[in-house]
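Journal club side-thread
Mid-discussion, someone asked how the predicted structure for our own chain would compare to the paper's figures. Pasting it here so we can look after the session.
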Amino acid sequence: MDPITGVAASAAGGGLFGLIGTALGRVAGYFETRQRLRHETERWGHETRLLELQREARAEETEAELALAETSGRWAGLEASMAAEAAIGESYPWVNAVRGITRPGLTLLLWVISAMIWLGADAAERAAITETATFAATAATLWWFGDRGPKREAAG
């Protein structure tokens, strides 16, 4: 074979294999890119789910903290009310009688109001008001009887 033809054939063969190599590299790159994008999409989906779970956990934690703060506030209010009642002391007999009958009278009145609401309201109003009236009546009853328990002597 002629040396020029050999060089031309070698150049053509090398170029052809170079083009085939480039094409194969491009095809492989396409599949690698597609796989990388699928992996990234899955990773983003996973991160989104994790962030959503973290948000839900924070929301539940905040809800629990609010419930705890509300309960603590109720107990603090009851404690302050009982301390104020204990600090009043004795007075004229008629004042003590009025003061002694006020809390049971209010308790009875709350139960009467609860019964009137239950018997006189329609279902929608009954559901909206009954919980509050029952809470107030029960709290007053338990406060009344809880405060009237026997006094303990201080150990000394």
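Post-session note: Residues 57 and 111 are 40 Å apart (CA to CA).
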